[in-house]
């Protein structure tokens, strides 16, 4: 490994561990601090933490790889995400921040749902916890696959652990650092590292496309090369069917049901801070997504003009970092990719762990466990989920975008309609909530198992979040009308200021 790259990555790792140590001293004395940072996140930290934990390695690997292969038509995914994220901040964020505190200071999504629908409290808590753990195991695995690909592409001669490959070593190193600061510092460590990682990611995504265009000889030369690759490479509509367009834009529906994102809304300092956090978060997101599009599009032009072989399109960011920059800057860019990967992994591990701790361990095994015991059990569950994700990620041929899309759809369909309606519709019943959760999750799982995301009834595939989201919405509405209850939406008391 080059000395300059080593220095940059070492400094990055040290910074992450230092933040974890700070958070351990600052905010791990009880379960609320360990799982929600004491609900004291500033707007900037909440916004960038939500963004960084959202985007993951998908932002610097999956999306640029899709654009590298298929051209600008893949940018509709990013457009759909921007629209979905905006409405998530408007509809869900202020209501969830207020209601989770008012409903007995709920620390997890399952706990909130059980308080919101007392008639089905145990069922909701149990089923939602299972859904969270299952889909997060897959989602976390996607981040580890990205980490493995990073080390396998950038450092193929990396010193291995035993007889493991560079890919497997990359998984172990990525997971090891994340585990240390997540287990030690909890939610505050995850949120503060997300903030720093979000800044690094955005800077890298602004710098990379600009340098690629400059080194290629300017926009005219870059555009000419792209047209030589495919005259329709820069078209947003060429070859795009209505179903294909809907499947791309429908990614935005997933935002309403992503526990690792909406938990940031629960932790922001106050409802009054939500609009400021929304503005910061949306600005960061638009700039970062535009940069990712530029990496994929301009990167294809550059490698064609310079006869560079890219074996795996999802590694285009790494290839450009190694080709265009001096080692010290390359190390920074690779740190940005690690930041994207680690910020999401840490958030997912903590949310899955919190759900196992609050909605399984405390609920079924140790109802009167001390706060210190709950914090320690939470750390143990972080490790357990991490091990399962590492096992899923063992295959180096796994695709980051594929794993992310499956988990994203699962959460979006299972929790999206449930969260929206539970926060806005007084007529929703506990039975309706359970029906929506189960129907949404099962629809996605069945759709994936039958391969209908690739081909549906002989035609193009339909992204599984679309049928899952619609089916869950209908299930909640119909079952709620059939099982009306009077005590589901209890009067809320004003929380202490």
TrEMBL record:
GO cellular component: plasma membrane
Main location: membrane
A Pfam family recorded for this sequence: SSF
UniProt cross-references to PROSITE patterns, sorted A to Z: NA_SOLUT_SYMP_3
Location(s) in or outside the cell: Cell inner membrane; Cell membrane
Family that this chain belongs to: Belongs to the sodium:solute symporter (SSF) (TC 2.A.21) family.
Name under which the protein is recorded: Sodium/proline symporter
Organism listed in the record: Martelella endophytica
């Amino acid at each position: 490994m080059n000395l300059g790259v080593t220095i940059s990555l070492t400094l990055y790792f040290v910074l992450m561990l230092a933040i974890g140590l700070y958070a351990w001293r600052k905010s791990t004395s009880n379960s609320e601090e360990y799982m929600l940072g004491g609900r004291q996140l500033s707007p900037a930290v909440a916004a960038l933490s939500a963004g960084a934990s959202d985007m993951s390695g998908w932002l610097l690997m999956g999306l640029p790889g899709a654009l590298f292969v298929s051209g600008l038509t893949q940018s509709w995914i990013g457009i759909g995400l921007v629209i979905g994220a905006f409405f998530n901040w408007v509809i869900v964020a202020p209501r969830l921040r207020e209601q989770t505190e008012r409903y007995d200071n709920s620390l997890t999504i399952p706990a909130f749902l059980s308080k919101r629908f007392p008639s089905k409290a145990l069922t909701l808590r149990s089923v939602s916890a299972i859904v969270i753990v299952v889909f997060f195991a897959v989602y976390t695995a996607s981040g580890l696959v990205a980490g493995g690909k990073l080390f396998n592409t950038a450092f193929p001669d990396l010193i291995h652990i035993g007889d493991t490959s560079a890919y497997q070593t990359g998984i172990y190193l990525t997971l090891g650092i994340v585990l240390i600061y997540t287990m030690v510092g909890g939610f505050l460590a995850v949120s503060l590292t997300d903030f720093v990682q979000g800044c690094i990611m955005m800077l890298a995504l602004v710098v990379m496309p600009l340098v690629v265009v400059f080194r290629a000889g300017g926009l005219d030369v870059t555009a000419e090369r792209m047209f030589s690759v495919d005259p329709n490479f820069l078209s947003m509509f060429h070859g795009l069917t209505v179903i294909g367009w809907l499947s791309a834009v429908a990614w935005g529906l997933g935002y309403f049901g992503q526990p690792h994102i909406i938990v940031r809304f629960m932790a922001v300092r106050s409802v009054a801070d939500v609009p400021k956090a929304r503005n910061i978060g949306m600005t960061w997101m638009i700039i970062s997504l535009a940069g990712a599009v530029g990496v994929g599009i301009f990167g294809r032009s550059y490698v064609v003009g310079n006869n560079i072989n890219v074996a795996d399109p999802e590694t285009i960011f790494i290839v450009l970092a190694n080709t265009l920059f001096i080692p010290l800057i390359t190390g920074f860019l690779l740190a940005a990719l690690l930041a994207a990967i680690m910020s999401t992994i840490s958030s997912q591990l903590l949310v899955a762990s919190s759900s196992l701790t609050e909605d399984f361990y405390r609920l079924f095994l140790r109802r009167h466990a001390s706060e210190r015991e709950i914090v320690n059990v939470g750390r143990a569950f972080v490790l357990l989920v991490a091990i399962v994700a590492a096992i899923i990620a063992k295959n180096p041929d796994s695709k980051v975008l594929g794993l992310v899309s499956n988990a994203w759809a699962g959460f979006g369909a299972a929790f999206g309609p449930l969260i929206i309606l539970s926060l806005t519709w007084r007529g929703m019943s506990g039975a309706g909530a359970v029906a929506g959760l189960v129907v949404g999750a099962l629809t996605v799982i069945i759709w994936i198992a039958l391969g209908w995301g690739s081909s549906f009834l002989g035609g193009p595939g339909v992204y599984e979040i679309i049928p899952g989201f619609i089916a869950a919405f209908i299930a909640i509405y119909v079952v709620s009308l059939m099982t009306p209850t009077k005590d589901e939406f209890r009067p809320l008391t004003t929380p202490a200021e």
